[in-house]
Amino acid sequence: MAVCDRCGKRAVWRDTESGEALCGEHFSAWYEHLVAETVCRYGMIPAGSRVAVGLSGGKDSTVLLSVLVKLYPDTEFVAVTVDEGIADYRDETIRAAETLVKRLGVEHRILSFADVCGKTLDELLAAAPERACSVCGTLRRRALNLAAREAEADRIATGHCMDDEAQSVLMNYLRGDITRVAENYKTNAGDLFIPRIKPLCRCTERATVAYGMVNHLLTSLPECPYTRYALRAGVRSELGLLEYTYPGTMLAIVEGQEELLAKLGPAVGEVRRMGVCERCGEPTENRLCAACTLLAKLEERG
Ligand SMILES: [Zn+2]
Ligand SMILES: [Zn+2]
């Protein structure tokens, strides 16, 4: 039986890079410290913040909300759940989200795609299921921004972990989307656009799931039926394999991207002025925002 290198109790975790074995208690402390360090390093939660936490009810966001509430007892949190309208999937995760907020004593808001654009994701995608993740992502960003603004939050925290970040970097390359790769500016849209923070961006998904299990936060939930259409699914499994064989690959990708952006120089810290969308009034750099552009395209397709 493997034992904890720090206390000798039964180990539940072995770090792939350092080889250190940890018991549930010491692993949890290690994970929470990693989150606190990330929040501090990027100045994510200044004193007196009111933070909206995107809570899908899935693994990552469940761990995110639980850890933030534990680490920052003096900060106000409001959980925001976006109901995309995905049959046989969303209802269960919403119930999981409701159980969690009740236990943590956190304010909870639920906003549906139908509230935001009059249709459910299933209705929007009837003609184009292969576009699920980009449509969903764009509309969810808008819904989160709206809900956070209504909740008078000054930050939106999302549960993106290091795997998500590394996948996104690779996906931009795989699509040849060098504009995105080199996207490096701060936007200024006044009070309309609520800044995003990703407190789990230095935690692997493996560690995040382990934390959820050790702390009895996770129940088994269905997987989103649209994932199989996504490029991300392929990148996720390939990258997972690489990380397993060569531990530290994901961290190298994420840190490499940060270094690239720092080296790009003059654009760093450039503030781009945003205007508002002609159709919906949400912040955008163009005439129409990303969500309205997408909805218009889907309408054309019928
Ligand atoms: Zn221990
Ligand atoms: Zn718009």
From TrEMBL:
Domain tRNA(Ile)-lysidine/2-thiocytidine synthase N-terminal residue range list: 51-181
Keywords tagged on the record: Transferase
Pfam families: ATP_bind_3
InterPro entries to which the protein is assigned, alphabetical: Ncs6/Tuc1/Ctu1 (IPR000541), Rossmann-like_a/b/a_fold (IPR014729), TilS/TtcA_N (IPR011063), tRNA_thiolation_TtcA_Ctu1 (IPR035107)
Organism, as annotated: Methanocorpusculum petauri
Protein's recorded name: TIGR00269 family protein
